[in-house]
């Protein structure tokens, strides 16, 4: 029997959520074992990924893939039902890659903002950093408000665009990101109602 793929995730990571949703959407769940790990404390993870980050995908031959962008494209190549990223160069491919890059970087900023806001030293330099991170996150949400996003025919870019607001709700429940963004709010509501999103929520 061929070795199965091994996907290492944290349930609080937006990038791991992207990989988990991709596994479900591409109908690969029966071929992949998913392991929930703590990337801060799991020493075995670093032996597979020197950055000790999630998600990490270990292929059947033992080689590891990371980060989420590489993993999702690899999963797409395995699926008999590819739907996330158009393979041929063209406007649809660039649209999806642009949205992914924008949403992923904003998720990184949101994660750093979450950590910075729990730093109680209150130094001016830290405050300036928090303001810059906050501007990156909420300016991206503003930009997504003006994008043409699809629930009915969603692809990789749409998925990433929906994961960012979900991560904001998870990390900053006291902030209403929906205010002033009715188009994005309606889109995210539709995406979060999909089975592949409901079955792969943020947790932690």
Describe the SSE topology.
Elements lengths: L4 E5 L4 H12 L6 E5 L6 H6 L7 E3 L5 E2 L2 H11 L12 H27 L6 H22 L10 H16 L10 H11 L2 H4 L6
Parallel strand pairs: 1-2
Antiparallel strand pairs: 1-3, 3-4
Helix pairs in contact: 1-3, 4-5, 4-6, 6-7
Total of DSSP H or I helical runs spanning 4+ residues: 8
- The total beta strand count reads 4
**Helical/strand content category:** alpha+beta
> What share of residues are in beta strands?
5-15%
- Written as H for each helix and E for each strand, in order along the chain, the element string is EHEHEEHHHHHH
- Main β-sheet, spatial strand arrangement: 2-1-3-4
Task: Determine Rg (CA atoms, Å).
Answer: 17 Å
Question: What does this 3D model show about the protein?
Answer:
It is a single chain. The chain is an alpha+beta fold and 204 residues long. It folds into 2 domains: 5-78, Glutaredoxin (3-Layer(aba) Sandwich), CATH 3.40.30.10; 91-199, Glutathione S-transferase Yfyf (Class Pi), Chain A, domain 2 (Up-down Bundle). Helix content is 53%, strand content 7%. The protein is built from 8 helices and 4 strands. The protein has helices at 14-25, 43-48, 68-78, 91-117, 124-145, 156-171, 182-192, 195-198, and strands spanning 5-9, 32-36, 56-58, 64-65. It has a 4-stranded mixed sheet with strand order 2-1-3-4. Helix 1 (14-25) links the parallel strand 1 and strand 2. Helix 4 packs parallel to helix 6 and helix 6 packs across helix 7. InterPro entries: Glutathione-S-Trfase_C_sf (IPR036282), Glutathione_S-Trfase_N (IPR004045), GST_Omega/HSP26 (IPR050983), Thioredoxin-like_sf (IPR036249). Residues 3-83 form the GST N-terminal domain. This is GST N-terminal domain-containing protein. One of its GO terms (cellular component) is cytoplasm.
